[in-house]
Amino acid sequence: MKRESIYGLMAEFKTAEELLAAAHRTQSAGYRRIDAFSPFPIEGLAEAVGFHRTRLPLVVLCAGILGGCSGFFLQYYSSAISYPINVGGRPLNSWPAFIPITFELTILFAAGAAVLGMLAMNGLPTPYHPVFNVPRFALASRDRFFLCIKARDPLFDRQKTREFLESLTAREVSEIEV
Amino acid sequence: MADSPADKLAEQALQEPILAPGHNYASVTDKISAIVLRRPPKWWILGFAVAFALVMLLLYSVTYLFVEGLGVWGIQIPVGWGFAIINFVWWIGIGHAGTLISAILLLLRQQWRTSINRFAEAMTLFAVACAGVFPLIHMGRPWLAYWLFPYPDTMKMWPNFRSPLVWDAFAVSTYATVSALFWFIGLLPDLATLRDRAKNRPAKIIYGFLAMGWRGSAVHWHRHETASLLLAGLATPLVLSVHTIVSLDFAFAIVPGWHATIFPPYFVAGAIYAGFAMVLTLSIPVRKLFGLEDFITMRHLDNMGKVLLATGLIVGYGYMMEAFMAFYSGNPYERFMIVNRMGGPYAVFYWCLVACNIVTPQFLWSRKVRSNVGALFAIAMVVNVGMWLERFVIVVTSLHRDFVPSAWGMYYPTRWDIFTFVGTIGLFLALLFLFIRFLPLISIFEMRTLVNEEEKRAAE
């Protein structure tokens, strides 16, 4: 396979609906390595670029359970095993009293996993990314919408893909330098 | 039939949109980011200077406290807990409104939260920071503050996990951390906007660093939204639990006036009440000074006024139940506690409290009052004071005369109590000033989503 010297091709759109429609058409044309950029989340766009389910909720649940178990174990260990203190014959494993801290640590671990998990799964921080080489891409964080077909895509061809993107009512199609 | 002025105002309030018409993605972006990217106005410099001076006062007071010891404060037997706990609970309570707006209103899909949630969440963080000062400095041996947290030590000693004070340490730490995390990931896309729009190089580099390379990719947005919803779902029970645990600091004691099961819901409602009063106190000047009336509209102020009224009614119910239960219980100590609150040495505080917290919010029943920005601001300030008085009444009147008259005494705060408190207000304001200077005070990407939804609705 010919090695492309560019990262891909970028098409700019004016509205969210145009971008969504273009992404659908790109996917139905057979392209797989596509990405879409917008200044706010657009419903259905992640599916249109081929992404389906995120594992983040599962990660958060597991972290929450881990946090809860850690919290309870910490208290149980210190109260019943490490330094048990007999206060009026009351049970050492005073689990009702252990609930608040168990709860707090569940929330803490789950929230930490939500944020760190989201960042990790998104690959952030990304100090460098080729899409920023397109001068107008700065508008992706303001009011313009972009669609990118990566050169890694098996169907990618510099000329043919450019013609395809230009047929999608894009305002401009530019090459993304690596 | 002619429309009375009140009817006209009512209609206006109902039809008032949550975003003024005529905005698009570019205009909301530019308006909000312009506040950050241009030179600060003179009033900002002046305000920050005043706040900074108060922070210096705080530093001085705390240093003097550490050098001389807790005796510089007014605490004594029987009132061993004075301004420190009052201020701690007041600040934490203020923080809760921010989380309610960010998290709970997100789960309830209330779109009117959009233009105030970033600001409110920042307020939460700074309020929790101010609150956190007090537990640290009010200890007799503050250099041993780390003993609050469990760590394996040479004596094999652990904190008393059965104590609400230790629960507090975990709850407030968790609350601060989760709020900061929630706030930060909400900021990420806006930091990217600032990175792309900043003109000078240092600004570009700093915002770029903080934005972590966010590029608005569809898949990233999907995970971001998922994470935000999950965090909102986690923060909701968290906020309820934090103030519940704070209330248990009191309720677990046997002191009359503290040992009441109504405390957890009463405190949580009071926290939301105080917090919304603070959000109103802050957002009214901010929207005026920055010309953000298009984004923080009369509908927002109206809704916040309604929340204030609702929580004020719950708090009023709490007061009445306390009084009723004190008599109904037949317990002579409980009965005396209420009689002492109403007619004892601190009675003037109790009646001011009733005037501030029960009587004043009743004005909010009137649509005319809720549409009057000046009235809302005044009522919010009164509620702020009232909620501080509530904590004063709870702490001081219950402690100063408990079971046995030989243990009775009076509590008089010293100037250092007051300086420290005013200093934390300065810290809060200074952090807020820094926030509005360097970070977008309205969530830009959520405003764009709102513009998108308004467009879609208009197209139908």
Protein architecture, described:
Chain A is built from five helices and four strands; from the N terminus they run βαβαααβαβ. By secondary structure, chain A is α+β, with helices and mostly antiparallel strands. In chain A, strands 2-3-1-4 form a four-stranded antiparallel beta sheet, with helices on one face. Chain B has one domain (21-459): Formate dehydrogenase/DMSO reductase domain (Formate dehydrogenase/DMSO reductase fold, Up-down Bundle). Chain B contains 16 helices and no strands. Chain B has helices at residues 5-15, 25-37, 42-68, 83-107, 114-137, 164-197, 201-211, 218-251, 263-289, 298-328, 332-343, 347-359, 367-370, 373-400, 415-438, 444-459. In chain B, helix 3 (42-68) runs antiparallel to helix 15 (415-438), helix 5 (114-137) packs across helix 6 (164-197) and helix 6 crosses helix 7 (201-211). Chain B is globular. Chain B starts with a helix and ends with a helix.
Brief sketch in words of this structure:
The complex is a heterodimer of chains A (about 180) and B (about 450). Chain A has about 180 residues and is α+β, with helices and mostly antiparallel strands. Chain A folds into 2 domains: about 5-55 and about 130-175, Alpha-Beta Plaits, CATH 3.30.70; about 55-120, no CATH class.
- CATH homolog superfamily of chain B: Formate dehydrogenase/DMSO reductase domain
Number of discrete helical segments of chain A: 5
Q: Provide the CATH top-level class of chain B.
A: Mainly Alpha
Strand order of the largest sheet of chain A: 2-3-1-4
| Structural class by SSE content of chain A | alpha+beta
Secondary-structure element series of chain A: EHEHHHEHE
Structural class of chain B: mainly alpha
Annotated CATH architecture of chain B: Up-down Bundle
